[in-house]
Amino acid sequence: MRIVISGVGEVGTHLAKMLSGASHDITVIDDDPKRIEEVAGMADVVTIEGDCTTFAVLKKASVRKADLFIAVRPEESINIISAVLAKQLGARKAIARIDNNEYLEPNNKEMFINMGIDYLFYPEKVAAREVINLLGHTSTTEYVDFSGGKLSLVVFKLDSSSPLIGRTLIEVTADREALPYRTVAISRDGDTIIPRGSDQFQEGDTVYVIANQNDVKSLMVFSGKPNIKVNNIMILGGSRIGVRIATELQDEANVKLVEYNPDKAYKLTETLEKTLIISDDGRNIDSMIEEGLSNMDAFVAVTGRSETNILAAMVAKRLGVKKVIAEVENLNFINLAESMGIDTIINKKLITASNIFRFTMNTDVQAIKCLTGCDAEVLEFIAKPNSPATKGQIRELDFPHDAVIGGIVRGDRSYIATGSMEINAFDRVVVFALPSAIARIGRFFS
Prior knowledge:
Layout: E1 2-6, H1 10-20, E2 25-30, H2 33-42, E3 46-49, H3 55-60, E4 68-71, H4 76-89, E5 94-97, H5 106-115, E6 119-121, H6 123-135, E7 142-146, E8 151-157, H7 169-172, E9 181-188, E10 191-193, E11 206-212, H8 216-219, E12 232-236, H9 240-249, E13 254-259, H10 262-271, E14 276-279, H11 285-290, E15 298-301, H12 306-318, E16 323-327, H13 334-339, E17 344-346, H14 348-357, E18 365-370, E19 377-382, E20 403-410, E21 413-416, E22 428-433, H15 435-441
Organism: Alistipes indistinctus YIT 12060
Keywords: Ion transport, NAD, Potassium, Potassium transport, Transport
Domain RCK C-terminal: 141-225, 366-446
């Protein structure tokens, strides 16, 4: 696939590296020569320096031959203009990053489609939604719904009190056909394992499970941690993510938001009427203790600095806060943050990748979730009539060993996949896959 990326900041650079590694032809555009030089040293891409809103630059990038144009500059207006121009010049699909929720309202969204933009995405909104979902499932480290919530991916770390520790997968699933969930992966010491029957669970393992939504609560007993109701929450950082979280939760919980900049804190008091806004430095431990951090059920650090978020989250954890979430944009810091005991990491690059990656697949992919805690993806496919996936029982499909079918949604019913099941045309199929399998699994459903 020929892909043109406009903007090679943190998000654009991550996309360029990820997509060039998947054997796509990538061209990147940016008006900053330093950023152009940096991305050229990281990924196999064609680089063009210039203004992405000019016809000359877009023509130089050969957007008329592009299968996909991705606009991910920090400036929303530039993304919209460049995406419209690229589509008019011949790009097959054009998508743009935005930071205005008003654009996603149904009537307004239709206007952008009429202008030629196929998809708008707002990473901060998706990140805020992920945090809110996690605050409703505090014993999980990641939680993702598929097919409108009929199936869920539940991720949890095994505490020392987990009843799974020391047991093999086959021991846990002796009554396999009756279980309403399936373990699709285990992350251990930086490695991701597609588990087989003889694999044994260990303390500290991160376990990835596909479950029927109604059975998520019963599943969480295996984590060894109780689920708690979040009544008191402190948010560090008046970023777009922080403000969206406060806006959605302030009617049902006691929310405190700590913002370092006094002017910004004052403006937030005008929009967040039911949230207590505090102007303070979140790195000051004494100040945070005075503001009642140790009495919080949950702490969410979403400032613009990964280091600040990690340090503040560590302090919250040591003060006994049960659920701690930190935004970590530096991908190199994610494993470090998790090893320090932070419950959940969110990352806008991975959120953006999840939104965009499905547009690069050759088959019908409804959703992709690029996971934070391991180098893997969870994908939701629709099985086409007469596709290889519909030609027999799952155990007979010769499915890649580095991928596993977790569940199937058929009409209004969901099923946890077993070897004896058959996939029907138009079933929605949730698959956990390591990067080595991504290019091969699509053909099973197309």
